[in-house]
Design brief:
- The chain folds into two domains: about 35-55 and about 185-290; about 60-180, PAS domain (Beta-Lactamase, 2-Layer Sandwich).
- Helices cover about 35% and strands about 25% of the residues.
- The chain contains six helices and 13 strands.
- The strands form two sheets. A seven-stranded mixed β-sheet has the order 9-8-7-13-12-11-10, sandwiched between helices. Strands 1, 2, 3, 4, 5 and 6 form a six-stranded antiparallel β-sheet that branches.
- Strand 1 and strand 2 (about 115) form a beta hairpin.
- The chain is elongated and about 115 Å long.
- Mean pLDDT is about 80; it is low at about 275-285.
Amino acid sequence: MPSLSLGTRLALIILLGTIATVGSVLFVAYGALVEDFEDILTEQQLYETRRIASEVNQRLQLKLDVLAESASLLSDGNQLVSQNEMATQLERQELLRSLLPDGILVFDSNATAIFENLYTPGRIGTNYADRKHFRRAIESRKPVISRPVIGRTTGVPLLSLLAPIESDEGDLLGLLGGTINLGRTSIVPVDMLEEIANDEATFTIIDSENFLYIEGGVIAKNGITPLPAPGENDLIDAALSGITSGHAVGPEGQELIYATSTCNAWAGNLFERYPINGQPRRPRSHLAILS
């Protein structure tokens, strides 16, 4: 077999070197492109979660504002109106009832339930003075939204909204309350839920104080399911870690980008996840955390 000339060998060496150099540059460039894509995707997820969180905050504040306005109707200036008058006044408040469809209550100045527009066995006569948000409303004389709590008589996860009822002299006469059943009524606006569904995404709400699934996830008959134990679900662990963005492994073993944002109305976080595969795709799921 004839040997290659020196010129030919030099040409082959240069060609192979060029191919290796180009391959190395392409490999580095691809890695940088994937990294840039992940950074852009994380920023996109942060924006989306902050947008949802902001909208949720505004909707909850609207509920609280309407509740506070309605509270002034339940006093004659010196004392609470009669229960018949309470029923009449609250029946007229269509906006309030639409914003708080899971129940409106009136409490006396000691935080004992004395009126409800939707009957729940054992609720009338129950005292709630030991609940932190009741103490905060009584002491501050300002409307408040609770952290997610388990209803004392209903046994379901709730957000509780309270507004003081005062006399003309500024004395506390009682509290007007409204509840949001987190297992039945979504706090995320319907149009956003539809947008998420159109993106073929999934949405889950969890209560990180009571460690429960609230919306989405595996729901038991009573609407309450405990979160997996630490170490069983990397995504849940990452969401509860307090780190606002990063990588985690999903339940199906898929590596995900996640981002969180705070909902100031109840000091909660919205959490969104996205699969990492080097190719731009739509977000696949969102997870909201109430903490």
